[in-house]
Write a structure and sequence with these properties.
The complex is a heterodimer of chains A (246) and B (68). Chain A is mainly α. Chain A contains 9 helices and no strands. The two termini of chain A are 30 Å apart. Chain B is 87% helix and 0% strand. The chains are: A mainly alpha (246), B mainly alpha (68). At the A-B interface, helix 2, helix 3, helix 4, helix 8 and helix 9 of A face helix 2 of B.
């Protein structure tokens, strides 16, 4: 009985209506949190004692980089669920992640490069974390390209799901790269197991607000794209009549 | 005014900090725009399909029928 809500998530009409209800909430939450994060990061938080005002790139760099990994994990998990239990909604959700992930990853690389310029003295370094983040960008682009190259949607779902699941091996490599190898990239300041963040609250609050805002933004974008995917996939279903007239 | 210009200068890091923020805000705006456009197009396509009042299977049947 407790699992009925989970089974409902396999039903396109139910998910479409649920997404329609939840999307505005996600938009508003993300607008408030990202708004506070931007003001907090640019104005309220104090300058860093070593990097001065230049460290403010952190507030856009770190959340985009975290997001790039999270979007990939969501895409891989949705792909696995779609492949194992043959759930169409899960494949549609995975398909919605590709282009979003590519833009977040490209932003992480671009903002990181702009941060590296003044602080490391180079815009690009063949550093483990940066190389594997670049590989992640190619994975997202490959996923989007492969999906676009296959006309049969069900075939595209299965093949792209395998690609997404195999590629998930890159995620722990990116996360732990700064610990496994001697890296120019700094180690984690916030997400460290068993220890407190090495950052004062005045700097941490806007960063966490940006991060949660990004999560909400991803939710809103994913649900919007998912609705579009479901509408284009469910060609003959009668519920579409209700959905488009609603 | 002088303090505002000083703020914009970001302690000499202006040419790194502002482009980073502009890139991210532009990428977010682009993502919102493309996602909403995808939904709008899917909705319009669905409305067009409903207007023809024939299901895809029936359309295929009629095409096969015409070919014969």
């Amino acid at each position: 009985m407790a699992w009925t809500w989970f089974h409902k998530l396999g039903s396109p009409p139910y998910v479409f209506r649920l997404a329609e209800t939840l999307t505005p909430w996600f938009w508003w939450i993300s607008a408030v949190l990202i708004g506070y994060g931007l003001i907090g990061g640019l104005v309220i938080s104090p300058a860093d004692y070593q990097q001065g005002e230049g460290y403010r790139i952190l507030y856009v760099h770190a959340p985009t980089a975290w997001m790039s990994l999270q979007v990939y994990v969501v895409m891989a998990v949705a792909s696995a669920v779609g492949l194992i239990w043959r759930i169409k909604v899960a494949h549609a959700a995975a398909a919605s992640c590709g282009s979003m992930g590519a833009t977040f990853t490209a932003c992480a690389l671009a903002t990181g490069s702009l941060w590296g310029g003044p602080m490391w003295g180079t815009y690009w370094e063949w550093d483990p974390r940066i190389i594997f983040e670049l590989v992640l960008l190619f994975q997202f682009l490959g996923y989007v390209g492969l999906r676009a190259a296959i006309d049969d949607k069900q075939r595209a779902d299965r093949i792209c799901a395998v690609l997404a699941i195999v590629g998930v091996v890159n995620i722990p490599i990116i996360h732990y790269s700064v610990e496994w190898w001697n890296s120019l990239h700094q180690t984690a300041s916030v997400m460290k197991l068993g220890s407190k963040p090495t950052m004062p609250m005045s700097m941490l609050m806007p960063l966490m607000s940006m991060f949660l805002g990004y999560v909400a933004l991803f939710g809103a974008l994913l649900l919007t794209r998912l609705r579009a995917e479901l509408l284009s996939r469910e060609r003959s279903a009668s519920w579409i009549r209700e959905a488009v007239h609603a | 005014m002088a303090s505002f210009i000083e703020y914009l200068d970001m302690g000499g890091y202006a040419r790194y900090v502002w482009p980073a923020y502009i890139i991210v805000v532009a990428a977010i705006t682009l993502n919102i725009y493309t996602a909403r456009r995808a939904l709008k197009r899917a909705r319009e396509a669905a409305l067009r399909r409903l207007a023809t009042k024939t299901e895809p299977v029936e359309q295929l049947r009629s095409q096969v029928g015409n070919a014969q």
